[in-house]
């Protein structure tokens, strides 16, 4: 059974979307990640180098969201999952990207894409 590290509500300004004005003006995106890994080594050592440093993870995820624009949330969320899985200790990652200001003509609370990716 895997342990979980969760980072929720990471807010980053990005320029993703299929419309020109989304790419030009940008908007806020909200990222949630859940990492599955064995935290026993860190629990035993009490050393941050034996686990995923969630501050460094947040910076890496933020760099992707604020970086090169993509058209679809599906592509953005995959890029973020790739960042999570770059750490060999992470067995699986569930990543959600919320786009609360998506260009929808009707009233809504949120639009999000969630994926789960694992090794093997």
General description of the model:
The protein is of the alpha+beta class and 120 residues long. It has one domain (3-118): GTP cyclohydrolase I, C-terminal domain/NADPH-dependent 7-cyano-7-deazaguanine reductase, N-terminal domain (GTP Cyclohydrolase I, domain 2, 2-Layer Sandwich). It has 4 helices and 4 strands. The chain has helices spanning 20-25, 40-45, 54-65, 73-85, and strands at residues 3-14, 27-37, 92-98, 112-118. Strands 1-2-3-4 form a 4-stranded antiparallel beta sheet. Helix 3 (54-65) runs antiparallel to helix 4. The longest helix has 13 residues, at 73-85. The radius of gyration is 15 Å and the shape is elongated. The two termini are 16 Å apart. The model has no long low-confidence stretch (mean pLDDT 97).
Q: Strand sequence of the main sheet, in spatial order? A: 1-2-3-4
The averaged pLDDT comes out at 97
Strand percentage lies at: 25-35%
Helix content, binned percent? 25-40%
Largest sheet: 4 strands, antiparallel
CATH architecture: 2-Layer Sandwich
Number of E-type strands? 4
Short précis:
With 120 residues, the chain is of the alpha+beta class. The protein is built from 4 helices and 4 strands, in the order βαβαααββ.
Task: Set down the secondary structure blueprint.
Elements: E1 3-14, H1 20-25, E2 27-37, H2 40-45, H3 54-65, H4 73-85, E3 92-98, E4 112-118
Antiparallel strand pairs: 1-2, 2-3, 3-4
Keyword list:
4-stranded antiparallel sheet, 4 helices, elongated, GTP Cyclohydrolase I, domain 2
